Amino acid sequence: SSQPFRRLVIMATSAPSLSDPNWQYGMGGWNNPRLPNFNLHDPTVIGVDWLGFLCLLGASLALMYKLMSFKGPDGDQEFFVGYREEKCLSIYVNLIAAITYWGRICAHFNNDMGLSLSVNYFKYLDYIFTCPILTLDLLWSLNLPYKITYSLFVGLTIACGVFCNAFEPPARYLWFMFGCFIFAFTWISIIRLVYARFQQFLNEDAKKIRAPLKLSLTLYFSIWCGYPALWLLTEFGAISQLAAHVMTVIMDVAAKSVYGFALLKFQLGVDKRDVWLDELKSVRYRDVVPQIRPSKTRESRMEYSEDGDFMRPSKGKRAEGDYMNPRWDHHDDGRRLPDSREMDEQVHEKDQEISSTMKQIADLNKQLSAMQESEAV
What is the reported pLDDT for 61? Predict the structure, then answer.
């Protein structure tokens, strides 16, 4: 009965340790002695590091310009994005990644020696910041539940990847298996939510904003699986570490820059068309899935409602259950909800009424004071 336990002890004691000269501490942590560690001075390594830095930095600057120059759906709100800073998350992702690549370039200038080389040792360390922010950006853009929870789960998955690369077997593979467990749970949970939301963009009205959303989702979920697959291929010698380094740079640019621009196009399309993403009710639609529709088009004329209170689109009706911006939505009892501009106009009218009333009161007080003075005389 003790034979299996004895075998386990022998395997654990015979596993490579930190004192094993065959295991060398290099790119990414402890490297498999069966695999040749590639040369950091290789021109290909230096070239792709520069390429990754320039792409990520350029993407962050372009995203910043595009977002900060967007003045809202009506073009009259200079700080539209400034009051909605959750839309700027893609800027942080690309800028953090660019700083990481700049650290690698600085290490090349130091001949890849000394403390400057540390940025290369833990190649997934920057992912602890960028991957949760990417997830938060996606869930926030689609107004999905568990934004913080699943973003933190992504961070825990990357933390397991950092420890996996920092240790030698068997701890190396134990960390990898535990990270895959968290990864699978988070990946399936997010894709269920995203799929339910995407089903609401299948109508013709949402065609223009559906295409960039589809691209961003494809990049997000496919590259998510690409990183662990690339690690396995490298670990067991299916591809060289130099090829893995080049592919990692390509995936970094695709997962952060291309994904960021695709999601930005979707976000701005939603804002320009005043699409309101309501809370997700369920991921199991037994009836017809409620479709997303723009609440107004810039070309359509506006007319007043029968009571003359609020404007409404003159063309197009909303199908029952479709989601629109609350400015054309209704209460459960059938009353329409005004938008912020209409509310401001109503508040301004009330302020004018109050000011007029206060002036009348002031005039009455003056008249009363005059009457009191005349009586006293």
Answer: 96
Determine whether 35 is exposed, middle or buried from the number of CB atoms within 10 Å of its CB (0-12, 13-18, 19+).
middle
User: What does the pLDDT look like over 30-47, one tens digit per residue?
Assistant: 555 555 466 777 889 899
Quote the pTM value. Answer: 0.68
Q: Residue 164: left (phi > 0), alpha (psi -120 to 50), or beta?
A: alpha
Positive or negative CA dihedral for 306, 309, 313, 314? positive
- Give the list of residues 6+ apart from residue 270 with CB closer than 8 angstroms, or none: 141, 209, 277
Q: Is 200 exposed, middle or buried (0-12, 13-18, 19+ CB in 10 A)?
A: buried
Tell me the backbone φ, ψ of residue 312, rounded to 5 degrees.
Answer: -150, 160
pLDDT for the residue numbered 66: 92
Among the listed residues 150, 147, 142, 140, the one whose alpha carbon sits nearest the alpha carbon of residue 224: 150
**What pLDDT, on the 0 to 100 scale, is given for residue 63?**
94
Tokens of 257: 């820059």
CA dihedral 44, 219, 172, 27 (to 10 degrees): 20
Q: Which residues of the chain have pLDDT under 50?
A: 1-19, 21, 36, 297-336
**Integer Cα distance of 158 and 125 in angstroms:** 8
**CA dihedral defined by 229, 234, 238, 242, rounded to 10 degrees?**
120
Q: CA torsion angle for 176, 180, 183, 188 (degrees, to 10)?
A: 170
Angle between helices 259-272 and 89-109 (to 10 degrees): 160
Do the bridges between strand 302-304 and strand 29-31 make them parallel or antiparallel, or are there none, so unpaired? Answer: unpaired
pLDDT reported for residue 118: 67
Q: Can you tell me which residue has the tokens 């809202």?
A: 72
pLDDT at 89: 93
pLDDT of amino acid 189: 93
